């Protein structure tokens, strides 16, 4: 009865007291996780992810700086005449750096985690904590180190195939953005069309979160992803000797940015070159270094806005034309 009376009082009381009660209810929310509303769960998830992200960001910036310094040693350069600060594509890369900044891998991870968390029915604050540290799928019971290893191998395998699909006729215009760099350097690693990001990295991450890989493990590995991407694009002549069959190297990936007949349709793996060795797409001729980079389409835009927009038009054109013509985009790199 007391409860009933309380309700009557609230209904009949001044509006301000009703609002006060509601605010008090919200303030109590963290101590009463079982009554969380979907929006509250969403906000807690965002807050928790933001904590994780800010703690990792200094690592990413430090690693990018490290590779900048390393690239300053000409004796180690794959293409000695090309230094990153004279890269004709630097302005375009800078747009990607600022507009799709270093934070992008984290934001992408955050988005993926949010989608999977909501899809798998995370309904309380306690669930959020649990989901962020343990995940929910079958792999969530494994030790974080094992999860990290599975994540690295699993995503690399999926990204290898996603990359091959992006070199196909229809999706090529979006990936051509990445290949449009005529001087490949560490900043090229940022030059990716959002569609390429979403259908590549985001989909693979989503699969991993759904399988139970802890978002904490994924976020912890983001600096490794940034480091690898910057390193394989840096202007270095490093091949790692026999380990070239295990790890992607600057020379390995620079061949991928070359003309089709010289490795442009080879070396798809982001981190582990043994996928290419296994699937017959490995290309690293002994004693040779790649020299030419870019797309075989002189009309492909060189500026950021053009590179954001034109791939959509070219993508539609790939469905309109039954056969590629001389002026249409194609997997030329
Ligand atoms: Zn490619
Ligand atoms: Zn690349």
Automatic annotation (TrEMBL):
Entry keywords, A to Z: Lipid metabolism, Membrane, Oxidoreductase, Transmembrane, Transmembrane helix
Pfam families: FA_hydroxylase
A single GO BP: membrane lipid metabolic process
GO cellular component: endomembrane system; membrane
GO MF, any single term: iron ion binding
Record localization: Endomembrane system
Domain named Fatty acid hydroxylase: residues: 149-281
Membrane-spanning ranges: 57-75, 96-122, 142-162
Entry keyword NADP: no
Mode of membrane association: Multi-pass membrane protein
Name of the featured protein: Sterol desaturase family protein
Source organism (scientific name): Phreatobacter aquaticus
């Amino acid at each position: 009865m007391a409860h009933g009376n309380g309700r009557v009082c609230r209904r009949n009381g001044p509006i301000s007291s009703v609002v006060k009660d509601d605010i008090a209810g919200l303030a109590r929310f963290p101590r009463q996780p079982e009554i969380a509303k979907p929006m509250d769960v969403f906000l807690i998830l965002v807050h928790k992810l933001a904590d994780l992200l800010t703690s990792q960001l200094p690592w990413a910036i430090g690693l990018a700086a490290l590779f900048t310094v390393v690239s300053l040693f000409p004796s180690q350069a794959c293409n000695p005449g090309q230094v990153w600060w004279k890269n004709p594509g630097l302005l375009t890369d800078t747009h990607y750096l600022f507009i799709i900044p270093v934070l992008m891998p984290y934001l992408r991870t955050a988005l993926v985690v949010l989608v999977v968390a909501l899809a798998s029915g995370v309904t309380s604050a306690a669930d959020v904590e649990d989901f962020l540290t343990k995940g929910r799928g079958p792999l969530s019971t494994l030790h974080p180190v094992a999860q990290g290893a599975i994540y690295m191998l699993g995503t690399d395998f999926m990204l290898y195939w996603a990359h091959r699909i992006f070199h196909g006729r229809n999706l090529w215009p979006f990936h051509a953005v990445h290949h449009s760099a005529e001087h490949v350097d560490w900043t090229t690693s940022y030059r990716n069309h959002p569609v390429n990001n979403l259908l590549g990295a985001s989909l693979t991450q989503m699969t991993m979160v759904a399988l139970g890989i802890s978002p904490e493990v994924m976020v912890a590995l983001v600096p490794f992803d940034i480091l690898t991407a910057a390193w394989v694009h840096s202007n270095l002549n490093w091949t790692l000797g026999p380990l070239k069959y295990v790890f992607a190297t600057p020379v390995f990936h620079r061949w991928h940015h070359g003309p089709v007949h010289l490795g442009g349709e080879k070396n798809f793996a982001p981190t582990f070159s043994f996928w290419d060795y296994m699937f017959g797409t490995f290309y690293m001729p002994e004693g040779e270094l790649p020299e030419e980079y870019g797309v075989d389409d002189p009309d492909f835009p060189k500026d950021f806005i053009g590179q954001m927009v034109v791939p959509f038009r070219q993508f539609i054109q790939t469905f309109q034309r039954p056969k590629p013509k001389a002026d249409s985009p194609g997997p030329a790199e």
